[in-house]
Specification:
It contains 5 helices and 9 strands, in the order H-E-H-E-H-E-E-E-E-E-E-E-H-H. A hairpin with a 3-residue loop joins strand 4 and strand 5.
Amino acid sequence: LGKCFTSVFNTIDYNKLTNFEVIYVDSNSTDDSIAQANKFNNVRTFKITGKYNAAIARNIGAKEAVGDVFFFIDGDMQICADFLPLVYDEKQGLFDDFVSGNFININYDNDWNFIDKEDYLKLRQDKLQFTTGGLFLIKSKIWYQFGGMKNKLRRNQDVDFALRLARMGILLN
């Protein structure tokens, strides 16, 4: 999680962003996740108790956010700072309604020693997709138009959301 937050703030600094907010929604973790999040300035933290899943967490984050663009990222992911200018500009906003990026799995052992890395999902620039994983950007108006994610699903909430958008012609770019 610390690496995730470091990558978020490195991306903000690298791209000289001035209009941003970082929201962390904790799904009742039993480790030091909240303490790790609180090490970073400008992180608003919310803790879910009771029932929780990715959809509930993302819906809470969206409800608390005030921006025109939501950038969702799972806590075990990192952002490459030079990715953002390919899909977003602070003056122009998000170039497409619904965007993701290439995923690269970086595998570590239990002591955080690097093992290997491999492509997980390779998005092609000339092809629109209809599903996403734990990393995507979306215009807030599109998120609200489709009612966010369905809280009742136990898994694949992101796939359900992307498929609902695809049925209406909004494909992942």
